[in-house]
Amino acid sequence: MLSLSLTSYLAVCYRSLVLSNRSIHSSHSIELAEVGIEEALWALNNAGGFDGSWSHPIAANATKTLNGFMYENGATGQVTVTIADYTTSAPKITAIGSITLGDHTSVTRTLQSDARPAPLFTKAIGATGNLAFDFAGTVDSYNSAITGYTPTDPAHLTAGNSAAVISAPDMSIGTAQIYGFAVTSPPTGPDPHPFLYLTGAKVIGPNSLTPVDPSRRRTNFTQPVYDPLDPTGGSPLPPVTTSITLGSTGVYRVDYINLTTDIHNPLIGAELLITAPVVLVVSNSVQTSGLGQITIRGAGSLELQIGENDGHGLVLQGAGIVNETALPQNLSVIVGGSYAGNPTSSIDVMNDFYGSIYLPHDAITIANNTTIFGALIANTVSFTGPSPSFHYDSAFQNISIAYINAPFTLVQLRELSSTGT
Known about the structure:
- By secondary structure, the chain is mainly beta.
- Helices cover about 10% and strands about 45% of the residues.
- The protein is built from 1 helix and 31 strands.
- The chain has one helix at about 1-45, and strands spanning about 55-60, 60-70, 75-85, 90-100, 105-115, 125, 130-135, 140, 165, 170, 175-185, 195, 200-205, 215-220, 235, 245, 250-255, 255-260, 270-275, 275-280, 285-290, 295, 300-305, 310-320, 320-325, 330-335, 345-350, 355-365, 370-385, 390-395, 410-420.
- The longest helix is centred in the first third of the chain and has 44 residues, at about 1-45.
- The radius of gyration is 28 Å and the shape is globular.
């Protein structure tokens, strides 16, 4: 009986040891799969990342195997990573981490993730220099992917309408009402007060107890700046100074755009009408004044890349850009690759502006009571009017911007069913 009991006890101990050993190596397997995911991201985000250690292209895929991982009790490990559609903007990464134990059994775990270019506009307003409200103003948020904008009630803030982040190394907000967060650099000797405001200003959210909520004041400022990508090809256009319609999808190239009131008929203005998905590459600046305007209508959308060779970027007065779709993602203004010096931009328009602006080298002035729906990144941003409004579209947190060389990030990382033999 003693022998039988001892044999049973030894069997239990042995099985416990085996299970414990497999559990440990299962953890090693997932660690190897994570190594594969990191290897894939590095290859996607670095020039020359797909060297001779990768097998590619194989049916539009790239594959790499990493060997030589040694573990206790004679176990060895390897990871195989495959990037499907690795030359596109929507690759899929699969990493298989496998441990072979000393008894020749194996433990395998698999991770899979989509990869997408990082979203550019994770903040409402991002400045690499100063951000200033000379007087008052309002900054709040909504999500156009869910619903249209409704005016914010300060007494009933929600996570959805108080998610706007304004960010700059140094800012002064006057008496502006910020329904969200304010992020600056930390105080330093040369700049002991990077965040200034006047009595009546607010930085609040749903549960804030003070006008400037300390929990919504951060000092960990960062603002990534990514390089633009030049669209390939493109049909040339003469300088746009008179009415023209672009109704065919494609890339167009033009020296400059300057639309104003018709000198022969003061009741109408020159109009650039966009009725299809259009990419417009402009060597110099884009300017409107009086009744001149750019209109986005129906199925139209506009990617507007501005080279700023004349020292200006986006100079909107009068009618400006009228995005009739009311969807900010249908208008994207980005910097071109040939800017020089410190360009200037300004927005002082009678119509609401729906769109995103990425001009990281520009000093942008937003005058009067201009209303903007979307997101903005610039060098410096100055709101000079008495009561401007900025409504951040948080849908941009899940939208990557075309023709910006943003790094790939993981989307929906998940584990597939694990196996063992």
